[in-house]
Amino acid sequence: MDLMRPALRIHVVAVVAAAVALLILTAQLPDLPQLARVFLLAGVAAVAQLRPIHLSANIKVTTEDAATFAAALSLGPFLGALVAGSSTLVALRTAPGEPFGLRVFNAATSVLGTGCCAIVFQALSARGSMVDWAVGATAAGATKYLLETALVDTAVGLQLRRNPLVTWWRIHRRDILPHAALYLLGVVGALLMAESPWAVVLFVAPVALVLLSLQQSARLRERTQHGVLELADIVDARDPYTRDHSKRTADMAERLARRLGLDPAQVELVRLAARVHDIGKVGTNDHVLLKPGPLDSDEESEMRRHAEIGARLLSQFPEFWEGAAIVLAHHERPDGTGYPRGLKGSELPFEAAVVAVADAHDAMTNDRPYRKALSWPAARAELLQHRGTQWDARVIDAFIAMLDEETALIATDQSRVTNIGTVKDPASR
Length: 429
Hints:
Blueprint: H1 6-26, H2 32-49, E1 53-54, E2 60-61, H3 64-93, H4 100-124, H5 130-160, H6 164-172, H7 176-195, H8 200-237, H9 245-259, H10 264-275, H11 286-289, H12 297-314, H13 321-329, H14 350-364, H15 376-385, H16 393-421
Antiparallel strand pairs: 1-2
Helix pairs in contact: 1-3, 1-4, 1-5, 2-3, 2-8, 3-4, 3-7, 4-5, 5-6, 7-8, 9-10, 9-14, 10-13, 10-14, 12-13, 13-14
């Protein structure tokens, strides 16, 4: 809690207080069958949280939403919220180094999301018809998802000083469908338990199958991503002067994206796009790619095709769909003289502008067949000369400030080492 900003502390306290108030206002004494279902569903939810599925570096899904949603629909606000909160606390207890305040906040978020979705469901399905039941379940699922993501995103926004509404869709668009599938499974579990209080036992099997399916899908995506990255490295290795160029560009682009304050999803997108930005050179002829001197007009046209080839290749893989647009645009310029589409100003994706600067810096500060590597002062002057025309002015300013600070820090450290090394041993006098 010590590192939290004051506004975030207020948000955390308010969420916890609201969760406690919800539990108090909806409190009920469960009968034995209900109590059994609470323990079973809480157990399923806790185990599910211990086995998250990583859809990407920044997006993970846990199947506990199926259990907590089933609890909300079948047990009501109090018991459903109890299942969600207790399972979250039990699961987070096993996380090494997890701050207590964060555990409580996550549990409170689950309590509010599950409890409020149960209230919405009860209100809309009160008449008991199947249509009302379906409408109530749909509205309850939307309530749970929107409320929980809003509470978490607001916390992150307060800590990082950014508007959560601006980044909500970009962050969550890839996890909406998996969550919808889990809520649908929760509906099935609720219907089973309506027939028999002990049908919750049958609910474990489909949850386990969904977990295994998501794990297999995640492994396939990981292998696909690894294969594409290997191909990018092979393309770099065709030219001894560009070996590891994409890796260095990705590292620099990631640091620059963080410096610019981009959200984690954007940072990951920039890193991944930079890592494969030259993959289209797999279709570039060797005599053009390896030519030691300047290219003629035909060879220049051949070389420029790599942006389109790379984007077309990457668009075939779900993990690279968004990155494909950045790869296509990483040679565009704010003044409209770039390629392949001649984008201008705000038409140029900001993430592509970040990759372009990192790419240019690495190209300038490493040897090429037609010239030696430039020093940082020379590269800095080149970047400033074309600030706002070839490269985005905001990105250039952030990049130069970052490199200047790092250069000054390195110089200070070297000076300290030199000073230490020149101190004479008193015993040698």
